[in-house]
Amino acid sequence: MLGFGDIALILLGVIAFAALSRRLETSMVTLPMVFAAFGWLIGQGGAELVPMHAEHEIIHTIAEITLILVLFADASRVDLRALRSHYAIPARMLLVGMPLTILLGTLLAHWVTPDASWAVALLVAAILTPTDAALGQTVVTSPAIPPRLRQGINVESGLNDGLALPVVMIAAIISAQGTGTVVEGVPDNVVVFALMQVVLGPLAGVVIGYLFARMLDAAINARFITTPFQGIYFLATAFLAFVAAELAGGNGLIAAFVGGLVFGHTLRSSTTFISEFMEGEGQLLTMFTFLIFGAVMVPLGIEHVTWKTVVLAIAYLSVIRVLPVWLSLAGSGLSSYEKIFLGWFGPRGLASILFALLILERFAIPGGDEILSCVVLTVMLSIVLHGVSANPMAGRFAQRTGLARPSSENP
Fold first, then answer.
1. 31-160+270-401 placed in CATH 1.10.10.10
2. For this UniProt entry, which segments traverse the membrane (predicted)?
3. What are the extents of the domains in the chain?
4. Is the pLDDT of residue 84 over 90?
5. Residues 6+ apart with CB under 8 A from 353
6. How many Cα atoms sit within 13 Å of 8 on the Cβ side?
7. What is the share, in percent, of the chain residues with pLDDT greater than 70?
């Protein structure tokens, strides 16, 4: 257990980052970079203040909560008018680019580790396919970047988490069953399971998002609800969408994103409270997720690193992501730089961490340590590379359009 001194040190780190946040937002230093490094320094890689045991469950819980909130909040702020005008970009990336990414990733994983089964190779590829736009926040918030590109990245990042989960679960089930392990609670028909995930999840999201947006409008118009409790209402609605989908047999992550999309589009009142809530409570959850990731998972990943995990991590962040996205956008009218930009900005973060923990806790997967190492290494590289490149690449669009470099500072 953490002592009061350890807790005080962590809180001082949070305070220091908060005090410097305005300056850091316009630099190459990002929140995930700072707190993953801070976690490593105070955790198993450094001072060993954070205990190794029982932390997987903690990081799993925090990562899941954070991911649900991020998906719901990001979706609620999607400009549907702009999305309707440029829906082809995220549609191509999801329907063509994502399957190609999983296929290419599976082929490479099996080529690098031929002793592993095809199911394990598919599992690794599926875990590392979802993206996390929050790792390059400048990209999805900069006015210098064309809206169609920002919307494309945001929508793809929101939906690919949920779409990848059925593939992750199916690959994990087959991998575990291949070892002769009896997997409890697994459906007899994995195809039906996958269909329920991608059908009932969005349905739950639509119902919850629409009904509770209407209810909130009514409460605001009648002056029944205070401004602070609008954030609490939003928080509860996001989790309700997730829980409703899971109870119905659907995918909770897809429900969270679709629910947020419907909620934000249906709500007639101002949605400013969502941004304010996520800039406070949402950021705090993200801090602790990456803090524990750096403290516990990074040392475990480094402990089992091999040349194979290094090759896979680099490949998943480069050719395995960029090439499928490039091919999916052929004939879209985008310039070569825009295609490379969309391909490059597929950071790996919360979803990959959550999926790895979810699967390795529940199933006996052959080579589990190596899988965790590959995921950790990929996320580590992504935190640094996508964090460092976000501002410069956004700045190139600013130079093209004549806009000033994006900044959050007020005069």
1. no
2. 58-75, 87-112, 118-140, 161-178, 190-212, 232-263, 283-302, 309-329, 341-359, 371-388
3. 31-160+270-401
4. no
5. 59, 63, 289, 293, 297, 375, 379
6. 3
7. 85
